[in-house]
Amino acid sequence: MSSSDPAFARPSSRGALGLGTFGLRSAAVALAALVALGGCTIQPLYGTAPSGQAVATTIARIGISPVTDRVSQRVRNALIFKLDGGTEPSNPAYTMTLNVTSAQTALGVTPIESAPSYSLTVSATYEIKSVATGKIVLRDTSRGSASYNRTMQEYANQRAELDAENRAAEVAAEDIRLRLAVAAAKGTL
């Protein structure tokens, strides 16, 4: 007798459907996952808000109040661009008030300098009011961080700090935009 002889063939452990024990378990886990996902209320972020308007249209109707300092202006400008491509709404449904602060932290110590690397954090606290009712519909804080290195050249240090502020302001503005889109998708705005 040889190994190709039918008498030596092993009986199949795959069962009637051709699935092994591992295959049955995998199918059961996949079926359980599908049943669990059936209860989720996942929706596209840029779909239609409960108000019936598109989320992008809702957040484009937010007017941003003027600010007074450079970092606040960077956050405001980035937001205006991100919310509606750089144009402010002529008849806003909501107004946003921004309060922006920045702080830096030394990250390390070397024998030559006390701290050659810094982390700069921009915090933007914002408040959204409905123009129609005058009520606050959203209040939150977003943060953005960027790091930079200091050298022995003062101008290079100033420029590196400004660049870090600009990058951190951009991150904070993007975080605000995402939070506004989520609020619009939920129907808060």
Verbal overview:
The chain is an alpha+beta fold and 189 residues long. The chain has a domain at 55-186: Double Stranded RNA Binding Domain (2-Layer Sandwich). It has 4 helices and 4 strands. It has helices at 21-37, 55-59, 70-84, 154-186, and strands spanning 62-64, 94-106, 117-130, 136-149. Strands 1-2-3-4 form a 4-stranded mixed β-sheet.
Summarize it.
The protein contains four helices and four strands, in the order H-H-E-H-E-E-E-H. A four-stranded mixed sheet has the order 1-2-3-4. It is of the alpha+beta class.
- How do the strands line up in the largest sheet? 1-2-3-4
The biggest sheet, with number of strands, parallel, antiparallel or mixed sense and barrel status, is: 4 strands, mixed
The Cα radius of gyration reads: 28 Å
- Beta-strand content estimate: 15-25%
CATH topology of the domain at 55-186: Double Stranded RNA Binding Domain
Distance between the termini: 80 Å
What's the number of helices?
4
CATH architectural label of the domain at 55-186: 2-Layer Sandwich
Runs with pLDDT <50, length 5+?
none
Question: Which of globular, elongated, flat, extended, rod-shaped describes the shape?
Answer: flat
Instruction: Give the helix proportion (percent range).
Output: 25-40%
CATH-assigned homologous superfamily of the domain at 55-186: Lipoprotein like domain
Q: Which class best fits the helix and strand makeup?
A: alpha+beta
For the record, the CATH class of the domain at 55-186 is Alpha Beta
Oligomer: single chain
